Amino acid sequence: MLDSLITSKTRLRLLVKFFINADNHSHLRGLAEEFGESTNAIRKELNNLSEAGYLQKESEKNRISYSANTQHPLFGSLQDIIRKYIGLDRVVEEVLKRMGDVEKVVLTGDYANGMDTGTIDIGIQGKDLNEEYLDSLGNRMQEMIDRTVKFTVLNSHQTTGIILYNKAAE
């Protein structure tokens, strides 16, 4: 869906990298290695996104580090679009439907680090959760969003990652 609007695969990967988690930052060579692309292709897109104000640059020694510009007026909207593109909104919706008393839904793994690997790791925290539902939910989610979704039940001490849903915040 979004890949038909944004035709540059490199640009789309950069948007996922920086807007899935605003804490993600990286430099040119690291991105080239991670994406398996030339530094020239990455540099071109980083410059375009920086000039448009979506990314900010920061000098660190002899490197320039890039990160999402959280002060940009479209930051929140872009982050929502990227999360919908990945399918995180549908994952949370399906988890809340029949999992029981869900307290938190947490994105962990590669996607939390901005890597679009095709496998989404989701941690669920709560009381009296319907753990049998998780296996069938993972299969259904794969059909719905065309990505593998792995669910784990978290204890109250495991909350590292991006919080997608927090009952206490409602």
UniProtKB/TrEMBL annotation:
<dbReference type="InterPro" id="IPR036388">
    <property type="entry name" value="WH-like_DNA-bd_sf"/>
</dbReference>
<dbReference type="InterPro" id="IPR036390">
    <property type="entry name" value="WH_DNA-bd_sf"/>
</dbReference>
<protein>
    <submittedName>
        <fullName>ArsR family transcriptional regulator</fullName>
    </submittedName>
</protein>
